[in-house]
Amino acid sequence: MNIFDMTIHELHTALKGKQVSSVEATAAMLQRIESVEPQVGSFITVTPENALAAARAADQQIARGECHLLTGIPMAVKDIFLTEGVLTTCGSRILNNFIPPYSAASWEKLQDRGAVLLGKLNQDEFAMGSSNESSAYGTTRNPWNLAHIPGGSSGGSAAAVAARQAIATLGTDTGGSIRQPASHCGCVGLKPTYGRVSRYGVIAYASSLDQVGPLTRDVSDCAVMLEAIAGHDPKDSTSVDTPVPNYSANLKSGVKGLKIGLPKEYFIDGLDTDVQMAMDAAIETYRRLGAEFVDISLPHTDYAVATYYLIATAEASSNLARYDGVRFGHRAEADGLLDMYTKSRSEGFGVEVKRRIMLGTYALSSGYYDAYYVKAQKVRTLIMNDFISAFADVDVMLTPVAPTPAFKIGEKINDPLQMYLSDIFTIPVNLAGTCAMSLPAGFSASGLPIGLQLIGKPFGEETILRAGYAFEQATEWHTRKATI
Amino acid sequence: MKYQPVIGLEVHVQLLTDTKIFCGCSTKFGAEPNSQTCPVCLGLPGALPVLNKKVVEFAIKAGLSTNCSITPRSIFARKNYFYPDLPKGYQISQFEDPICQWGWLDIKVGEETKRIGITRIHMEEDAGKLVHGELSGPGDGSGVDLNRACTPLLEVVSEPDLRSSDEAVAYLKQLHQIVTWLGICDGNMEEGSFRCDANVSVMPVGSDKLGTRAEIKNVNSFKFVKLAIEYEIQRQIDLIEDGGTVVQETRLFDPNSGKTRSMRSKEEAHDYRYFPDPDLVPLVISEQWIERSRGELPELPEQRQQRFMAELGLPPYDAEVLTACRALADYFEAGVAAGGNAKAVGNWVMGEITRALNDSGTSIETCPVSPEQLAELLKLIDNGTISGKIAKTVFDEMWRSGKAPQAIVEEQGLIQVSDSGAIEGIIDEIIAANAGQVEEYRGGKEKVFGFFVGQVMKASKGKANPTVVNELLLNKLKG
Fold first, then answer.
1. Of the residues A135, B2, B300, B386, which has the fewest C-beta atoms closer than 10 A?
2. B420-478: which CATH number, 1.10.40.30, 1.10.10.410, 3.30.428.10, 1.10.600.10?
């Protein structure tokens, strides 16, 4: 078996049994990256020397008998995570020279357990996009079909797992940015409950929606990664101080008697036939495993996309104000302060980022604030309430991740509204602040992966992981590999 | 036409916390530029604010001491604008639901007491500062020093209840007294720890329609506040009298010229796009927390004044002077507690002690004479060991050497002579030596009596008990 095809658990067994060293595994991954990267473009930065040094340290750790599940495992993180001493661009030209002096709390936790960083993954600029086409460093391609997008904004994180360029990756999800690319690339992607994982050191897009999560080959790996990164962080006031369950230990309890809700607003007429078929098959599988289905309604779903594009852009317009050329990042040659601001930001930001800054600035402006921002917050409450009342009757919800499989590169780039609508099934979860996971549930006629979304109650990651594991055991979608 | 000025003040109070409001960096003044910074106060990508609890405690104390209601659930908001000293491109402040609301202060102007409303008190972070010229490094550019960025501030906003520059200064002084008394601010106006923006407008006397206001920025002394407001009132009146109209604008006071000048007009004003900061959760303050803070409040100046009058029998003037600051009041009370007579301790604190502090440029906190020593000195006067006059000499020596008064009196042989035998001897000598003056006195020129007292005191090196001297002299001179 190729090292690069392994899961965390498989490689861990090999490392622990000394069949392979972390240096060998890391070298194998670096070689794999080198061979497929020209086609896929998952990375913005590859850090071979750092990776091998970390692998050597991990090997020493293993030799001492300290072999955590993640020790010596080669991974990569989205370029939105600050990594001390390693270029961190967030997919933007404005950060083309930014070497952070500190690391994101979530990555630090993985590093503390001995994980090896292979490099930084491509993404939509500032996590604004659903296709990776807004990156200032080229578009990542879908490993299953290079003419298609990998999804976004954590497109590089999903593509790297699918193309076996990393054993596991970290992404962020503000409106579906982990789940949608995971769905499009046929891997497992989890967006934890808001507050479950520290946002410290993760470049903010929309602070009230952003959440860090793993992308992996299978559900067991996802559980291990979440266990490692979850937990209260005193440096993030919005992180929640609630105990982290042992997600791995409870994976195998099955779904007998589990009540799964099917929100009718997510099974709409326009749904792609292949996606619909995959959902039908998944429902059938769960029924066979003993789960019960309940028809439910999330009545305010229609307003989710509009609400999201007011709240997320409003927060972003403020979050991105610090990129002014004064202290770090791109600074344009300019004549005076205003000129420096204007030129640095005009040159540094891409089209989509500028569009969202303008939308958000407008939504917060005096005279429009009540009509847009405040109204959106009110609708957000209604959407949250939808979930609260629906969860009174069910344990989890099952929905598609995206209305269609991965579209073609260039297909929607000039139609922002169509692009925004590709996130209609993922956005409500962020607005509600709860958790959800995408897992492989089939393929389209043309061979593109289709993901299934399991939505859990707030801090109900344990339940969706258990439900996901049961599905995975009963199906073989997750074992298929992109032929690249 | 006669005009009525209307004034409201916004005061920025820099809090005396050891660390900044949203990170653990030191707030110490005067450090090497940018040496007291971290990812949070530098506004680096990914950094997040965490609220310093001490700031909340200080804000609650300020609120309770100014009769405010404490908001049970208050919100932090972002105030968005671009400036190089503002690292995040927004200032974390409070907008809707500030921590304190609806308070007031009673101020005294002349004989009158007037209640001034306090609209709100909110918490916010300070910005950094720009450094121009050579300090900024090579070249002729400007530098940014972010040591001050993220330093905690309270903004205290008054109602437009003030009607003159004197009222404004009285209000400011009282607020200054309270925040320094509470120990939440060092009150240093030169370093900007206590600074004020004034909103000034005028309207015809009798009108109830407020005029257009101008905001005067950053006035950093009581004197300048008075000058700036007076200049601005006159400027607006002149403008209206000349047929012009006051425009809403922000103005700067120039202490050199004593004038205000336009900084930016309403049209140029920022749209700050306030919205709740999603990085900070709402601040929930329980009833218990408020009560605990109330319990920790020191006795405030006003209450202490009342007590000094009622319990210690001080006249109102003395009570007011002795409560000018908390350390002075503490000193006074310690002197009384050590057995000093209240009126006498008060006189000494307001007199000799204040004079010596002023002369030497020391503060009451570091006064070399302890209140206990002062009380001891007063006891020596009371029991006749030394005269009030000698006491001043002893006091100077105490100030210089730190020695106990008793020791000084003994060492220098300053004990008062009350023994009539010893004093009689001196008097006899003086009378014998000044036959002419004796004649004058006996001839009805009673003024000469003072001459004899002086001579006796001089001969006794000031140690003779003046009462005894007077008594004996009278008898002897009568013949």
1. B2
2. 1.10.10.410
